[in-house]
Amino acid sequence: MSVPYAKLPAWADYGLIPLINVVVAFAVAGLVVLLVGESPVEAFTYLIEGAFGRGQNIAYTLYYATSFIFTGLAVAVAFHGGLFNIGGEGQAYVGGLGVALVVLALDGTFPWWVNFPLAIVGAAFMGALWAFVPAYLQARRGSHIVITTIMFNFIAASLMVYLLTTVLKPAGSMSPQTRTFLDGGQLPKLNFVFDWFGASVRSSPLNISFLLALVAAFLVWILIWRTKLGYEIRTQGFSPKAARYAGIGETRIVLVTMLISGALAGMMALNPVMGDANRLQLDFVTGAGFVGIAVALMGRSHPAGIIPAAILFGVLYQGGAEIAFMMPSISRDMIIIIQGLVILFAGALEHMFRPSLQALFASISPRSGAGEAAGQKGA
Amino acid sequence: MSEAAIELVGINKSFGPVHANKNIDLNIKAGTIHGIVGENGAGKSTLMSILYGFYQADSGEIHVAGKPVAITSSNHAIALGIGMVHQHFMLVQNFTVLENIILGAEREALLSSSISKARSELKRLEKEYGLDVDPDSIIEDLPVGLQQRVEILKALYRGADILILDEPTGVLTPAEADHLFRILAQLRAEGKTVVLITHKLREIMAITDNVSVMRQGQIVATRKTAETTVEELAELMVGRRVLLHVEKGDARAGEVKLSVRNLTVVDSRGVKVVDDVSFDVRGGEIVGIAGVAGNGQSQLLETISGIRPAVSGTVMLDGRPIDVTGAADPGELRDRGLAHVPEDRHYVGLVLPFEEYENSILGYHDRPEYLNGPFLNIEAIRADAKKKISQYDIRPGNERLKTANFSGGNQQKIVLAREMEKDPGVLVIGQPTRGVDVGAIEFIHKRLIDMRDQGRAVLLVSVELDEIRSLSDRILVMFDGRVVGERSGEATEGELGLLMAGIDGKEAAE
Amino acid sequence: MDQAFVVLIQILDSTIRLSIPLMFACLAGLYSERAGVFDIGLEGKMLAAAFAGAAAAAVYGSAWIGLCFAVMVSVALALVHGFASITNRGNQIVSGVAINFIAAGTTVILGQAWFAQGGRTPSLSAETRFTGVHLPFAQELREVPIVGYIYYELISGHSMLVYLAFATVAFTWWVLFRTRFGLRLRAVGENPAAVDTAGISVTWLRYRAVICTGILCGFAGAYLSMGLGAGFVKDMTAGRGYIALAALIFAKWKPVPAMFACLLFGFLDAVSIRLQGSPLPIIGPVPTQLMQALPYILTVILLAGFIGKAIPPRAGGVPYVKER
């Protein structure tokens, strides 16, 4: 039986607790800043300035957020099915291959608006493919999906290095990357949106895949809470025994869930590959797959939480660049620490502050615990 | 002799808003067997957990052998000479008997000397109390009766003078239970004090010296066993006369709806858990399967409902076979009119974090009336859930509430409403009233009789013999995976009890 | 001497070196998982220990002080995992993943802030590393054919941490099956309620197991940066923590099979390094990337295939809650 806590109002459960967790994660990160001999307050100022200072910075922030929305959704969908997909990094990396193959073949033939949907399919397909093997091994052989997806990250890295240094590299080039895409392989930027608000953005990588990410978030919400498949995924995630009882095939759900998860992770590649760099290059994922874990946990696996969480990490990436510029001892790796701390406090320690908060709420309104009384009795 | 082994004064314990123990006063005399009876959820286990140091009381005093004590941990309880045999055995399944016995009572950091000391001590206890068990067998290979003996040995090895047994006979055959009672009598003869917690009145009458009745967290009466009757205790337990017999007319059995032939099921270790079982269930009758828990009934239910594959045998539903040895699928069986109320509603029959309306379609979620193409028709599902809530009097009547927040009885009604409302030809139901309050029991029993009277076939599995006897038109008894006998609904408890122990009544008479 | 024999001995020699971090990490995981606490954070603890060890050794000029720091930092992270998964009953996988990220980020940030060498620590001199020790008579027996050569090349000449790792295998077996602590540890991973009702604190017992994990991960990390390598390099664990976990599953949570599983992974690693760049017979040249990915691919295959049914400790991954 669960510990009989007083119930928290929904806004506290879904708003206040994640907020407290994130604030604590940042406070601890501040300690690390102190440890390297810099001022956390100053660092925070650079962070905000760097992320929001000008239209340009906001555009960059949203560009990074785009990637994190995709990977956050990928992790969240798997969570709903009771699966922990740590392979988003590798799936996104291989997803880039899907984008590149489509674009390299067609960018001279079709305009971007024909190639974009095809590239989406390519990215999703390759990402799903990279998730399929761990999913199959989990469903059929009982392999631990956490370990296999991590292994597939390493394997993806080797595979991509091999392809980029041999097959995909244009002849005579020394750098491990594909040729630059033609116009038909470049996604339109969204800079004009900032013009409406009077801010001018000279060049930023924010592109149309940001809108795709928002659409994907909405579709994930529909999928999870409004479709039969989503119902089956959630049943499997909460209680595999109940799923079996309800005639929901475990193998099918594990496979389908991971394919969707991998496809979402793979689609992340559209943003940097087709939207910004316009070529496939080494390590373009830069940890976005792992950020997705923190984003999903912070956003409580709900698209409405994932979007703000992704933007927060966008702030960290963009503002972090500013910090790294102003304070050379604080590199981008700071974000990995914050990411770890967010996963720790919003994930593993998510209930740490709950009891005291519940006690607080109980003392403010003594009736808040009464609703639970009927439920607890005789259960 | 009349000195108190344990005296409780004004014990209170609350879990959040639930007041599990209210002002408990209790005096347990040394050298006696003291029974504590009450329904599920009456607060018996909480009280004993306080005595064993698992929980601390919010207020009140505990006296052991006349001295006031504060029992802060199980360790402390053990030091005071209190031993406990839990309802779910506290044994490490892949350890030997000896390892289990010394766990927590090892004398020093290295095991070897503790083990040899324990071995000789065990021999002594065996002789003294007739508790023989091989010290080197692995627990998971032992039958439950022996596992329980290991639990008793564990307590005695720790020098327990007061032994608390929590629902000790739930997993035992009547014969094993009788053996246990002989052991308890032996313990009493040696001067030990025994506290027996149970909800079975027969056991209270058979073995105890004194009995206390608990209801809704309070002790409502304490009696000398010799001066009370089953009827009085039953009334004290529920607070009013119990409906011992369900009102029902004669069965009008029709055609065979469910036909099971030579069904055999093995578990993950390769042990036959259902062994060559054959029977029929006709429309308009309730067939009850009686048996001590763990004799294959659960697996039989799961196989018939398509959850667990069989290795051989056939099952026919309305004259058409179910592919029980291969791809039988619970969803497909539901479409063919076989509904299943599983034994475990918490993890099988319901998804507790779901809202009530989401559970109201579990297993039926692919029916066209709940869907718009691939999408859920939320409006229709909620309307349907509301209808079931009013028809089955599910409380609180809010389909948006999380299922975990409903009481056991109401959760069971959610499952029943879902499984019965599609008008199935066959209903397979396990432990329909486990952990369900009295009011809901009556309701559920009445519903089952109604189904029967509408010509449906009902297959009922329950470990509550009273329930089987009052509902069933025919009773099959399972023992060790086999159906060892069939009796009419009028069979006596004694007759069934022998069968449940694997002894054929006729053979025994000869 | 036969060339093939010399090559074989060289490969086996590097097998031993490469399997030591795995062995420490695998045994580390064994303590924790036998007690019912899953630990995917072996990787992070090892990485943090590698950094702390190399950094302290560089600053204080002593391998031993380095080792102390490695163990301390690793134990501190283990306690964070314990706090999350034992005290707060959080998700153990999530907690482990968090620790891996925290370690990955912090080592680079602090390394850069303190030493300004792009996240590396200064390279360690022989005096501040765990270098090879010569076993008695190694020199004298060197010339004895086969046996003497094996003794000199393969058995002697490793760092003291190598011998410690093998001793830890035996010690772990002894602890697990011959001591009170081991009995309780195994019990708490199977049925914590049985331990609790026997009057033993589940929490304290699991914390002790987690501390053991921390200590051994400390050794694993210290060996990486101060035995195998000569200083800390960013992400130098390279997935060894996960491979150790796979080895643990492969070994069905038993110490001696764990040793063999780690030697197997070490052997594969040694072979793939040996074969890098040189063409294979029949197959011809093999891309280096494939050779680099080989340990990860084999981990996947081993986990999926040959282990049969590995039954983890029954209470593994499940926080203990007293039932009413």
Description:
The complex is a heterotrimer of chains A (379), B (510) and C (324). With 379 residues, chain A is mainly alpha-helical. Chain A is built from 17 helices and no strands. Chain A has helices at 10-35, 40-52, 55-80, 88-106, 112-141, 145-165, 191-196, 209-226, 228-238, 240-245, 250-267, 270-277, 288-298, 303-326, 333-348, 354-364, 370-376. The longest helix of chain A is centred in the middle third of the chain and has 30 residues, at 112-141. Chain A starts with 9 loop residues before the first helix and ends with a helix. Mean pLDDT of chain A is 89; it is low at 1-5 and 367-379. Chain B has 18 helices and 22 strands. In chain B, the strands form 5 sheets. Chain B has a 6-stranded mixed beta sheet, sandwiched between helices. In chain B, strands 16-19-20-13-21-22 form a 6-stranded mixed beta sheet, with helices on both faces. In chain B, β19, α15 and β20 (457-461) form a beta-alpha-beta unit. The two termini of chain B are 44 Å apart. In chain C, α1 (3-34) runs antiparallel to α10 (202-228) and α11 packs across α12 (255-275). Chain C has a domain at 21-238. Chain C has 324 residues and is mainly alpha-helical. The mean pLDDT of chain C is 90. Chains in contact: A-B, A-C, B-C. At the A-C interface, α5, α6, α13 and α15 of A face α3, α4, α11 and α13 of C.
